[in-house]
Amino acid sequence: MGEPRWLDEREAQVWKMYRDLRRDLQSAQDRQLLRDSGLSGADYALLVPLSEAPDGLMRSRDLGLEVGWERSRLSHQVIRMEKRGLVTREACADDARGAMVRLTTAGRAAIEGAAPQHVETVRRCFFDPLTSQEVDTLGILMGKMLDTLSHERD
Question: What's the pTM value of the predicted model, to 2 decimals?
C-alpha cells in the first residue's frame, strides 16, 4: 500500500472548510425545517422521494437506497413517521418479504407546506453566495467527486 499521501496545508484547510460547511449547512436546514414545519431533516429526507414517487408509494428497499440509509435506520424512521400519520407501511404485492411505504394525505400536506421555506433556506445558504459561473463550476467539481465515489462502491 505504501506511504500515506498526507494532505498538505492547503488541502487540509479546504477539507476542514468542507467538513464545516457540510455540518453548518445541515444544521441550518434542520433548524429551519423544525422551526417552520415541525419536520426533522430525516422526515424531510424520506418525504421528498415519496412525494415524487407514483401514488406516493415506494418499496422500502428502494427508499433506503434513494436516501443512502441502512435498513435499520430507515425502519426506525418510518415507524416514527407512521406514528405521526405521515406514512403508512404496506405489504409488497410482488414479494411477500418486501415492504412498501406510502405517503399519507397528511404526509403530502407536510412536505408541500415545508418545501417553500426549505428551498428558500437552500437558496440563501448555498446558492446566493455564489455567482452563476461559480454554481456551474461547483456542479462540475461535485460531478467529478461523485463519479469517483460511484467507482468506489463497485
Answer: 0.88
Segment (H or E) for 90: strand 87-91
- Contacts of residue 106, defined as CB under 8 A and 6 or more positions apart, other chains included, come to 84, 85, 86
Which DSSP category does 84 fall into? T
Place of cell 425502519: 75
How far is residue 123 from each of residues 4, 26, 54, 83, 117, measured CA to CA in Å? 38, 13, 27, 32, 10
Cell 445541515 found at:
26
Residue reference for cell 415524487: 52
What are the residues whose beta carbons fall under 8 Å from the beta carbon of 57, sequence distance 6 or more?
50, 90, 100, 101, 102, 103
Cell numbers for 46, please give them.
424520506
Number of Cβ within 10 Å of residue 114's Cβ equals 21
Ramachandran area for residue 67 (φ above 0: left; ψ -120 to 50: alpha; else beta): alpha
Q: How far apart are CA 67 and CA 76, in angstroms?
A: 14
Q: In order along the chain (154 residues), what is the average pLDDT of each group of 10 residues?
A: 92 97 96 96 97 95 95 96 96 80 97 96 96 97 94 75
Largest CA distance in the chain: 56
